[in-house]
Amino acid sequence: MLFGLAHYAGFSARRGALNNLLDTLTALAAGFVTAGGLLALFNVLDHSSLASAVGQVSLQAVPAALGALVARRQLSNGGGEGDEDQASYPGELFLMLAGALYFAMNLAPTEEMRLIAYRTTPLGALGVLLLSIVLLHLIVFEAGFAGQEEKESPLRAFIDFTLPGYALCLVASFAMLWTFGGLDGHGLQSLVANVVTLAFPAAIGAAAARLLV
């Protein structure tokens, strides 16, 4: 994911497999240094086990690396503008997936998301799902994703970007919950509630990806 994102928001205007790889490694290095430093500063790094310490740093380093790539794009005074405008349709969907994963990765391990899902009724979960789709569509259509024609209808944007984008949010949410053990011991209804709940912030991340990258 970092390698693909480096193509659209790398640390330099140069593109290509080698430059993307170097940007990916640079972002990871920044993520590991930042994560390790902050965990040590807050005295939460597990010094009793090397494996545990490496795991702690690694989990923080990935979103930090994503943030490093996005920050370069946002703080470079417009440097590299236009790269993402050339993205193909699959490229746009990839950016949406990256945004969804960024939000889901940071929220999936938290107890708050599971508590919200636990308290959500089936009707409430349906409401969250519909609200997620509506917000995603509004941001996607107003942001004007590359690949949308200037006079593209809201219906066309809904079919081309909103529905596939929300499907990617569900996939990203399920993957992150599974990774962090958030689906263990849940029945079907509880599983769906957890995924739909996490997909709400993931949808915001997917929609914001176009604006951030």
Kindly describe this structure.
- This protein has 213 residues and is mainly α.
- It is built from 8 helices and no strands.
- It is flat and about 45 Å long.
- The model is unreliable at 79-85 (pLDDT under 50).
- The longest helix is centred in the N-terminal third of the chain and has 26 residues, at 50-75.
The portion of residues forming beta strands comes to under 5%
Estimated structural class: mainly alpha
Gap between N and C termini: 14 Å
- From the spread of the alpha carbons, the general shape counts as flat
Order of helices and strands: HHHHHHHH
Largest sheet, if any?
A: none
Low-confidence segments: 79-85
The rounded Rg comes to: 18 Å
- Count of individual beta strands: 0
Helical content class? over 70%
Supply the number of helical segments: 8
Q: Oligomeric form of this entry?
A: single chain
Mean pLDDT: 84
Structural topology:
Layout: H1 2-9, H2 17-41, H3 50-75, H4 89-107, H5 111-119, H6 122-143, H7 154-179, H8 188-212
Helix pairs in contact: 1-2, 1-3, 2-3, 4-7, 4-8, 5-8, 6-7, 6-8, 7-8
Give structural attributes.
213 residues; mainly alpha; 0% strand
What's this model, at a glance?
By secondary structure, the protein is mainly alpha-helical. The protein has helices at residues 2-9, 17-41, 50-75, 89-107, 111-119, 122-143, 154-179, 188-212.
